[in-house]
Amino acid sequence: MSVPGEKDDRPLYERFGLRIARRGYDRDQVEAYLTRLLAGAPPVGVAGFDLVRRGYERGRVDEVIARLHREAGPGDQS
């Protein structure tokens, strides 16, 4: 776990415990979304990802995104 305020250089899948599922969210799309969210530029609207073979486990991705939105505080999260 990283220290608050310290840059975490681990890959996103490792940093957030994202696992590969037989069918899951497209990994490139998820990582692009998380990168924008962490940079302080959350994408507008609801997150939507293609379902693909060997993608990230859907439930875990949903948990991570919900947590990051909560931690970002109030604002437009529609």
Terminal Cα span = 30 Å
Question: Percent of residues in beta strands?
Answer: 5-15%
Kindly state the number of beta strands. Answer: 2
Q: Which value, in Å, is the CA radius of gyration?
A: 13 Å
Strand order of the largest sheet: 1-2
**How does the overall form come out from the CA principal axes?**
globular
Structure annotation, total helices: 3
Low-confidence stretches: none
Q: Whole-number average pLDDT? A: 85
Biggest sheet features: 2 strands, antiparallel
Query: Helix/strand-derived class?
Result: alpha+beta
In sequence order, what are the helices and strands, one letter per element? HEHEH
Helix residue percentage = 25-40%
List keywords for this structure.
12% strand, alpha+beta, 2 strands, 78 residues, 40% helix, 3 helices, two-stranded antiparallel sheet
Explain what you see.
This protein is an alpha+beta fold. The chain is 40% helix and 12% strand. The protein contains 3 helices and 2 strands. A two-stranded antiparallel ribbon has the order 1-2. Helix 2 (27-38) runs parallel beside helix 3 (58-72). The longest helix has 15 residues, at 58-72. The protein is globular. The N and C termini lie far apart (30 Å). The mean pLDDT is 85.
Question: TL;DR?
Answer:
The chain contains three helices and two strands.
Secondary structure blueprint with pairings:
Layout: H1 12-15, E1 20-25, H2 27-38, E2 51-53, H3 58-72
